[in-house]
Each structure stands twice: as C-alpha cells, then as structure tokens.
Design a protein that fits this description.
Structural class: alpha+beta
Number of strands: 4
Helix content: 25-40%
CATH topology: Double Stranded RNA Binding Domain
CATH superfamily: Lipoprotein like domain
Distance between the termini: 48 Å
Strand order of the largest sheet: 1-2-3-4
Number of domains: 1
Radius of gyration: 21 Å
Number of helices: 3
Shape: flat
C-alpha cells in the first residue's frame, strides 16, 4: 500500500514539474487564423460549428484559412412499431469543409450519425436533438482541427 502511494506521489510530482502538457489540450491555442467562415445548410448546426471554431481561432497566427462549410443534416425514421408510429430516428450530420490556405484549395468531409429514441414529449425531444447537434459540432470541429494540424 505504501509503495502504491509513493509511486503515485512520485509520478504526480514528476509530471507536474517537467512541463508536460496534453497534446490536444484546450489551453493550447491552435496556430490557425480563420479569416472567413461561410456556412450553408442547417442553421442550428452551423451556429454550433462556428462557436466551436472560435475556440481554435488565433488572430496572431500567420496561417490564414478561409472556410466554406456546407452542412447537411437529416432526421430520418429508423424504425416503426406495428401502428406505424416512429420509435427510433436516425440523425445524420454530414459536413463538407472547403478550405483555402495559401492559395491551395482542399476539401474535408466529415459524417456523424446517431440513433435517437422517440420521446413522448416534443419539447424534451427537441432539446435532446439540440444537445446531439452540439455534440456533433464539437466532434466534427475536433476532427477538422486534427486534420488541419496534420496537413499543415
């Protein structure tokens, strides 16, 4: 038991004093300046994407990027019961990023889907769907930043 405490204490002190920082920490600002962000498609998901992109925007960076974002969001009936009432919905978000960086154009496509159960109360279902859209946006922007970091 004493050995475990000493080992944990040693690693805690060692890692806190060596300048260790997580690779994908939110404290580390990205090295991108998004000078132009244009969105088309689902308004709510587009708003969430822009909010998440603002976290990674570094206005002092010399890597200026223009983004044209095309958002395609669908809510499809996944399954129905014997009466024909929908029991599950398939939520699909497909985002196409057209990137202009140093005169070069590139394209990144990211697709997310989720199966959502039908809820009795419409208000709760809309709030749950909104939460899922927020999670989609967070996940999609994280994938975009990783792709941009790898390629630039």
């Amino acid at each position: 038991m004493l050995k475990k405490i000493i080992v944990v204490l040693f690693f805690t002190l060692f890692l806190s004093q060596c300048g260790y920082t997580p690779m994908y920490s939110l404290d580390n600002k990205s090295n991108f300046n998004f000078i132009s962000i244009k969105t088309r498609g689902d308004d709510e998901l587009s708003k969430f994407l822009k909010l998440n992109l603002d976290r990674y925007n570094n206005r002092q960076s010399d890597k200026q990027i223009s983004l044209d974002i095309i958002v395609d969001y669908e809510k499809l009936s996944q399954s129905k019961d014997l009466t024909g009432t929908t029991t599950d919905y398939l939520l699909i978000a497909e985002v196409n990023f057209n990137i202009l960086f140093n005169g070069q154009e590139s394209e990144i496509n990211i697709k997310k889907d989720f199966v959502m159960k039908d809820m009795d109360k419409e208000f709760e279902e809309r709030n749950y769907e909104r939460t899922i859209k927020q999670n989609f946006a967070y996940s999609i922007i994280n994938k975009l930043i990783i792709q941009l970091s790898k390629s630039r």
